[in-house]
Amino acid sequence: MIARMVRPSREDHATQPVRSRVRDLKRAVRVSRSHLRRADGGWLQPQRGPQKVDSYDEFREFSSGDTKLAKVTQVMDPVRNPFVPGAGNPPPELAGRSLLLDQAKIALQRVAQQRHSQSLILVGLRGVGKTVLLNRMKDMAETLGYRAHLLEAHEGKPFPELLVPALRSALMSISTVESARSYARRAMRVLASFVRALKVTVNDVEYGIDLEAGTADSGDIEADLPDLLQAVGEAAKAAQRPVAILIDEMQYMTEKEFSAIIMAVHRASQQALPVLMIGAGLPQIIGLAGESKSYAERLFRFPRIGALTHDDAQQAIVNPLRTEGVHIEPAALQLILSHTERYPYFLQQWGHDSWNVAQNEIITQDDVVRAYSVAIKTLDESFFRVRFDRCSPAEKRYMRALAELGAGTHRSGDIAEVLGLKTTSVAPTRANLIRKGMIFSPSHGDTEFTVPLFDAYMRRELPYFFDDEERD
């Protein structure tokens, strides 16, 4: 706990002698400390007790130079705050995802034993915890003896540039196993052929001049990646060290790259090689998979990751608080769930800010109300704005028109009507926003934000809809 000064009126300060004021201040400190006593006379949390003030000079310093007297009350210690808002930060309570993690563990165990298992591609909006889950699955894989690598696809960056260093690292590890050394060396030559044929640029990495002629050297990623993954899988099998590649933001991959991934996974599955790929992406990844290969659904499962259930969302808030000996009023909890719509990222933000404004170890509805402006300001300046700033003026106008229609899915024709334009005129802008991962199409002709609560942000950011002159 941290001591906080609540200042009385100027009249009280002016009329009370200094010695008397210091005595009253000490009494206030003793009283506040008495509330921390256990029945046996011990302290509940001595390391978090209020600061002791022994002199009026110390009190003046404690109050940052302001010489007004104060009474001592208690506020929450931000160091103890269990909530961790931020992209990819593991929450203190990973609620509502145990079934999915169990499925991933079974897949990892089966592939390690060279048994067929469908790979997973997690599908969901921003802020639902896909990256957190991938990191947890990577940890699970390493615990099971995998060489695991987590990659993040980038808009405009060729996927092989991300994949090659990860595969090279896995092969270097495998090459230390005597029984797999020759397989690893061959796989390294195949990797070199892959790099040379696709003109992959990887900084500060030497692959030598030895190539595996006739393997992974056509320059066509759909033909070469299956050859490469097969060579890696054969080396992993010989070493009895399975390999897991986890890929985040898969929606940024090109259709050809995604097709190559599917074909490579298919080859490894057919030959029962201990190689597994797990991915995650925005909802448009399902369409990309279908366009790439018709048999993608037989190789991958596409579990939907969304907002938490009511009970799981409550656990995500209540359990971390309970661990710290803090409670939350039912009305306050329901208000958090309402503000966040039970999305994991926002639950962490509201939990974090509600803790920091709370006056004691019972978080009230008033605390959550006070935390609202703090949470919204933080989200606007980081989570939302970083995406908003990537967009052109025309794209921002399109998103503002979508926001004007409210939350949820809306017809593309309705958005064009708000803009006063034809649907065909705004189609390129819509396509750019889909490519940037700002919106997606749940079904033909429909449009929805990929970021929960983004419609409300757009109305805050651009409160006045543009006039006809801006539209032109």
3D structure, described in words:
The structure is a single chain. The protein has 472 residues and is α/β, with parallel strands linked by helices. It folds into four domains: 2-75, no CATH class; 98-305, Rossmann fold (3-Layer(aba) Sandwich); 310-387, Orthogonal Bundle (Helicase, Ruva Protein, domain 3); 390-471, Arc Repressor Mutant, subunit A (Orthogonal Bundle), CATH 1.10.10.10. Helix content is 53%, strand content 11%. The chain is built from 20 helices and 13 strands. It has helices at residues 10-15, 18-34, 56-62, 98-112, 130-143, 159-174, 181-198, 221-239, 255-270, 284-292, 296-299, 310-323, 330-340, 344-357, 365-388, 393-404, 412-419, 423-435, 454-461, 468-471, and strands at 2-6, 71-75, 119-124, 147-152, 243-248, 275-281, 300-301, 304-305, 327-328, 362-363, 410-411, 439-440, 446-449. Strands 3, 4, 5, 6, 7 and 8 form a six-stranded parallel sheet that branches. Helix 9 (255-270) packs across helix 10. It starts with a strand and ends with a helix. Residues 1-19, 21-74 and 467-472 have low confidence and may be disordered.
